[in-house]
Amino acid sequence: MAKRSFPLSKVYGLLEPGPVVLLTTVRGGVPDVMTLSWHVMLEFEPPLVGVVLSDRDYSYDSLAASRECVIAIPTVDIAHAVVGCGNTSGRDTDKFAAFGLTALPASQVAAPLIAECQANLECRVVDTTLVARYGFFVLEVVKAWIDPARRGQQTLHHRGYGDFMVSGTTIRLPSRMR
Q1: Alpha-carbon distance 166 to 96, whole Å?
Q2: Under CATH, which number does the domain 18-166 receive?
Q3: CB of 79 closer than 8 Å to CB of 130
Q4: How many CB atoms lie within 10 A of CB 178?
């Protein structure tokens, strides 16, 4: 089969990094949530996660100022809320109320957990070296929560321009990692 040229503007859909997540922050005591698919695991212990936020995003200033957030991992059952949060701004919308999400108190950070998500990771910013140039924040996960009733449910994966893939079948292959 012959190879064809592919638009550079669509490359990110080929390298999709993982599940779409919801990132919560607090500004002036008011919680906000944004949809995020630009993230990457950087280290196992302590768990370090890199996230990219545009300086045009309302959450960017909140994260830069507070230096803490929660990464919540939603499942396909709340896909419409996830997309809704991504298509609106916290500048003029209470996204928790607008999309039926429940904010729960976190134990280590001011940003809230999201009750409807299968997992929530409380995070603190530990490196801002690449923020000015790339909007890349390095976060350390300081507390992790899992909802056993939701664990293993299908997650969303952004493919670009409104296209999402839903996680599929899990297979197990030999591995030396523990």
Answers
A1: 23
A2: 2.30.110.10
A3: no
A4: 3
